[in-house]
């Protein structure tokens, strides 16, 4: 069976090639007056990777372009707006017609970004074609703030996690997980799997929920620390009682 990718279904004018994407990144960096080294320090992405991406020599994975976008203060709408389009603040309902998303082919996945006209969204929806067939090494695992959801439209995928676990999903299956855990997708069906996915930014509620277990643990430790001197006092009192008894016996 012939394998197809996302761009095969999309208007060619809606495809964001590496060169155009690289120029967009470089323009945003230059506008801020930043060097490659400064952007690398802020994003955690190597200078070499950023340089090659800016020159259109390298396709970035999700974690890298998400980290670079965050450092440049660009959201997905701005990074993946169609040619000649400028993302505007999100204010009302947005419709993306069939096959009218903006396609960017990354290292393992061809993404069709939806609703790119809006900047500042809390969610980034995509239709994706997973073209990776194997886990080739630790570098393929993506990790980024927020949460991620995937629903399989066709084919089958395996979602591998950096802790060694993996989940196999068939058509109609879905998965929701913490995107901070390293993860990678591969197609395991004869045809390349197509999915719809949503990633979220890390909200204040999410940060609060994640901080709760640590806060509870801290309070427990504090209570134990307060209780500890009392325990010693009891031991001291008992020791004194024993000493008094010893004196009486001696007498």
TrEMBL record:
PANTHER family: BLR4304 PROTEIN, HTH-TYPE TRANSCRIPTIONAL REGULATOR. It comes from the Bacteria. It holds the Pfam family Cupin_2. The lineage of its organism: Bacteria, Pseudomonadati, Pseudomonadota, Betaproteobacteria, Burkholderiales. One of its GO terms (cellular component) is cytosol. Residues 25-79 form the HTH cro/C1-type domain. This is Transcriptional regulator, XRE family with cupin sensor domain. Keywords: DNA-binding, Plasmid. The keyword Hydrolase does not apply. InterPro entries: Cro/C1-type_HTH, Cupin_2, Lambda_DNA-bd_dom_sf, RmlC-like_jellyroll, RmlC_Cupin_sf, TransReg_Diox_bact_type. It comes from Cupriavidus metallidurans (strain ATCC 43123 / DSM 2839 / NBRC 102507 / CH34) (Ralstonia metallidurans). GO terms for molecular function: DNA binding; DNA-binding transcription factor activity. PROSITE patterns: HTH_CROC1 (PS50943). The keyword DNA-binding applies. Signal peptide: none annotated.
């Amino acid at each position: 069976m012939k394998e197809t990718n996302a761009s095969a279904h999309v208007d060619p004018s809606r495809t964001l090639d590496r060169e155009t994407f690289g120029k967009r990144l470089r323009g945003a960096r230059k506008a801020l007056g930043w060097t490659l080294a400064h952007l690398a320090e802020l994003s955690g992405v190597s200078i070499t990777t950023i340089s090659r991406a800016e020159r259109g020599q390298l396709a970035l994975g999700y974690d890298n372009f998400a980290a670079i976008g965050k450092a440049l203060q660009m959201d997905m709408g701005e990074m993946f707006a169609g040619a000649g389009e400028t993302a505007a603040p999100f204010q009302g309902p947005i419709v993306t017609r069939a096959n009218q998303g903006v396609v960017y082919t990354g290292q393992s996945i061809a993404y069709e970004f939806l609703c790119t006209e809006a900047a500042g969204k809390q969610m980034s929806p995509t239709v994706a074609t997973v073209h990776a067939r194997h886990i080739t090494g630790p570098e393929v695992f993506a990790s980024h703030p927020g949460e991620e959801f995937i629903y399989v439209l066709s084919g089958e995928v395996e979602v591998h996690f950096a802790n060694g676990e993996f989940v196999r999903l068939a058509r109609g299956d879905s998965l929701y997980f913490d995107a901070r855990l390293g993860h990678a997708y591969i197609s395991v069906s004869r045809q390349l799997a197509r999915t719809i996915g949503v990633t979220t930014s890390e909200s204040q509620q999410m940060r609060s929920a994640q901080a709760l277990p640590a806060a509870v643990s801290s309070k427990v430790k504090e209570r134990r620390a307060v209780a500890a001197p009392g325990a010693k006092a009891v031991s001291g009192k008992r020791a004194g009682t024993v000493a008094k008894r010893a004196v009486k016996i001696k007498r």
